[in-house]
Amino acid sequence: MNIRHWTYFLLLFCFIGHAAAEDTDLDAVYLKAQALGRKTLIREALKTLNHAVPSSADSTLLLARIGHLYLRLQLPDSAEAAFVRALKNDPHQGESHLGMGRVLLE
Fold first, then answer.
1. DSSP string covering 9-55, please?
2. Rounded distance between C-alpha atoms, residue 59 and residue 42, angstroms
3. How many domains does the chain have?
4. pLDDT-derived band of residue 23, with 50, 70 and 90 as boundaries?
5. What is the distance between the alpha carbons of residues 59 and 56, in angstroms, rounded to a whole number?
6. Host domain of residue 45
7. pTM of this structure
8. Residue 16 counted as domain residue
9. 44 CB contacts (<8 Å, ≥6 apart)?
10. Is 57 helix (H, G, I), strand (E, B) or coil?
11. Is 70 a domain residue?
12. Helix (H/G/I), strand (E/B), else coil: 79
């Protein structure tokens, strides 16, 4: 990678980092719930994430993550509803398609 590519990468990273700064806490909530896997923690994360959907800059990704957490709780109907909402926002969102496949396997 030459200096021009690095400069472009750094500018893009800074822009994305600034735009996504408000969602950083939500990412942390999701990742902690996924990593630890305790049902009470997942339920708390779901409350936080569901509350954040209306004001989120990227509600499609947030809805997909909500769907995956519902699958962790073995609630495929709730997961499906979250994935369907995400796909209405962006029909090409791969994480939601993957989630729908997991719902169909439940």
1. HHHHHHHHHHHTGGGHHHHHHHHHHHHH--HHHHHHHHHHHHHHGGG
2. 18
3. 1
4. low
5. 5
6. 23-105
7. 0.71
8. no
9. 33
10. coil
11. yes
12. helix
